[in-house]
Amino acid sequence: MKYTPEHITELGPDDIFVFGSNLAGNHAGGAARIARLKFGAIQGQGEGLQGQSYAIPTMQGGVETIRPYVDRFIDVARECDQNTFYVTRIGCGIAGFTDEEIAPLFKEAMKLYNVRLPESFVKIIRRDEAAAQQTDTQQTDARQA
What we know:
With 145 residues, this protein is an alpha/beta fold. It contains 4 helices and 5 strands; from the N terminus they run βαββαβαβα.
């Protein structure tokens, strides 16, 4: 499994920088600022593809308000399979969420060969999947006993 690098300073021609945004598209700080200065993020565009970047809104409420935007991103990543998407720790900076809260939103993205996630997200998703599998096994064993 390849991960999103901790610090991205350049991209290949088919690479996309995925960052957390706000709905107003005010890309003033954190990864959003880097996206605007280096990777073509458009001031005033809070979601979607823009230059070599993709904005996912994270500042509008709780974690569940982020899910639809992550789901749309996953659909785009499936369609644009010639691109490699480098997902930053969206929502875990200025927005104030933890990796534990955000990582599960990207469970389906982890299955895509062209999406790179932060190592912390991957570890959380794998841990949660292992725990769910163990619970399923214990329930099956209990029913068979």
